[in-house]
Amino acid sequence: MKSYISLLTFCFLSIVSYGQIKESQTIDSIFIEWDQADVPGCALGVIKNGELVYSKGYGIGDLEHDIKITPSSVFYIGSVSKQFVTFSILLLEEQGKLDLDDEIQKYLPDFPEYNSPLTIRHFIHHTSGVRDYLTLMYLKGRNYLDNTDEDEVYELIKRQEELNFTPGEKYLYSNSCYFMLAMIIEKAAGQSLKEFAHKNIFQPLGMRNTLFYDDNTDLIRNRVFSYRKREKEGYDNLIMRFDLVGSGGVYSSIEDLFLWDQNFYDNKLGKGGQDIIEKMHIEGLLNNGESSGYAFALHKDIYKGLKTVSHGGSLAGYRAQLMRFPEEQLSIIILANRGDANPTAKSFQIADILLYDKFIDPSLKENNSETQIATNQEPEFTLNQLVGNYEIQVGAQLEISIKNDSLNVLQSWNKSTYKIVNTTGNTYEITNDPSIQFVFSELKKDETQILTVFQEGNETTCKRKESTDLSKLDTEDYTGQFYSKELDATYLLFKEGETLKIKIANYEAQELVIYGKDIFTTDGDLVRFHRSNGKIEGFELDAGRVTNLKFEKK
Fold first, then answer.
1. Digit-coded pLDDT (tens) for 536-553
2. Residues 480, 553: contact at Cβ < 8 Å?
3. Which of 116-136 are b and which e, b meaning 16 or more Cβ less than 10 Å from the residue's Cβ?
4. Distances (CA, A) of 554 to 252, 490, 542
5. Measured distance CA(522)–CA(262) in Å, rounded
């Protein structure tokens, strides 16, 4: 009997943790808060030299039934799904069924024509200017957790009278593009994206628990549910009936994504060979010849001197990251089921453990660009000299303050706050997140004028925002009902005491914060009013992936 129990224990452990590496305990410590019997968590996979050398589940996948997370657990992977869309597009190109420079209307003839042509290539690299449908749905008052009809979404996208910008002018992420790429695949292939990907990708690679989920009545074995942490204690179950594909839609597991990851080193799909893999890594070009910084649903970056290829994903309480260090043949996959997870940061923490001896010279480890190092040649500034508001763009700023003798950052667009600590010179980092650096420079009038943020190979320069006197502004001018033809929605602006608020559909009213004359911000969005003969006639709304959305006063 004793030997029988031991055998059961051994079998159970083999499900929970495949493989063992000497760094396993250090890696486990990163997830210690999630490795409990009553909280959501994640599944982890570490791939090295073609083998899944370490995989493990931390926490619970179904809190109602106490089902633990394992490497076999199936998660929604959000925008990590997009690379299966682009691979499908390239397979269809290989089959001669489409061309990347085909205009969208060849497959979707009812899609509106704008001032410049829109091509499949624009859609792949997020250079189309087409407004993001998830943002539009939110602005219309729809909850993404609810079931949404494909035709409704497509009609909303077509209803937009203008683009965010001229196609090819810049990069701006748009889920609408990949939603419509799924429609284009169906037209070109003569079958749904779900069917095409199953036949041409998932089945040949042996990914038995991976699918594009386009019908929310279908069952998914070993599915993990997603959760949001409550303010005090416990978790909300974010039950999702969302089943649109293209922008997302894939459910998968660590074990299946291991097979997908390895196909990048030795492609077995389509005609075989690495030509299609090389195409997956080609970044799109803007009209000015510069890179868009986005390949075929893959981000190529440098981390501490090492090349990375990655993509993240999120929806509801699901969070995902698939990060590859191709020259080291190391990949890290994290699939989480809690909305407060940051799998990208944790992936970098694991890389710090496994690749420490491969990083660039130790003196440069904290600063992974020459620009950062040069910036740090200035004398070290005091905390008081750093305090102030630094503008990323009109309406969005980082507010730097001192709290408990440390620097605190408030992101104006989402009210997120966090502490940053000094690492070297005038460089600061979020504790336990070396993927982002904050570098202060240009001291004038005893205040730094520039804050440069480095994140995953990207550099953002933020200038100190000068304060303006808006005390005489009469907020009563801005009240009333405002209608958007493109959303077919009416917003109510009203005063509550001395506070100006905006009411969108059945959402709780949000405060409009004065940013400048006729310019307000709300929850990260920018509202710019326009006048005629001194009277408010309407406003334009910039909401991240949707810009210049027009509202007229009723």
1. 999 999 999 999 999 999
2. yes
3. bebbbbbbbbbbbbbbbbbbb
4. 48, 9, 20
5. 44
Q: What is the pTM of this model?
A: 0.84
Q: Please spell the DSSP secondary structure of 3-27, one letter per residue.
A: HHHHHHHHHHHHHHEES--TTHHHH
Residue 110 backbone class (left: φ over 0; alpha: ψ -120 to 50; beta: rest): alpha
Question: What is the C-alpha separation between 59 and 69, in angstroms, rounded?
Answer: 6
Nearest to 475 by CA among 450, 493, 457, 491: 493
Residue type, 143: N
- What amino acid occupies position 191? Q
DSSP codes of every residue in 304-346: TTEEEEEEEEEETTEEEEEEEEGGGTEEEEEEE-BTT--HHHH
Q: Hey, where are the domains in the chain? A: 78-358, 369-464, 475-553
Domains 369-464 and 475-553 share a fold: yes
CB–CB of 391/383 below 8 Å?
A: no
Q: Which CATH topology does 369-464 take?
A: Lipocalin (2.40.128)
Tell me how far apart the alpha carbons of residues 132 and 141 are, in angstroms, rounded to a whole number.
15
The C-alpha atoms of residue 238 and residue 315 are separated, in whole angstroms, by 10
211 three-state secondary structure = strand
Backbone angles phi, psi at 85, to 5 degrees: -70, -50
H/E element, 154: helix 150-158
Please tell me whether residue 115 adopts helix, strand or coil conformation. Answer: coil
Q: How far is CA 63 from the centre of its chain?
A: 26
Helix, strand, or coil (residue 179):
helix
- Which tens digits make up the pLDDT trace of 150-199? 999 999 999 999 999 999 999 999 999 999 999 999 999 999 999 999 99
211 φ/ψ angles, rounded to the nearest 5 degrees: -160, 155
Fold of 78-358: Beta-lactamase (3.40.710)
What is d(CA 309, CA 261) in angstroms, rounded to the nearest whole number? 11
Q: Taking the CB of residue 65, how many other CB atoms lie within 10 A of it?
A: 8
Apex CA 270: angle with CA 264 and CA 273, to 5°?
A: 50
Residue with tokens 């497509």: 154
Residues of the chain with pLDDT under 70: 1-19, 361-377, 456-457, 468-471
CA 266 to centroid of chain Cα atoms: 28
- Please name which of 312, 323, 427 lies closest in space to residue 365, comparing C-alpha atoms: 427
User: Rounded distance, CA 309 to CA 321, Å?
Assistant: 11
| CATH code assigned to 475-553 | 2.40.128.50
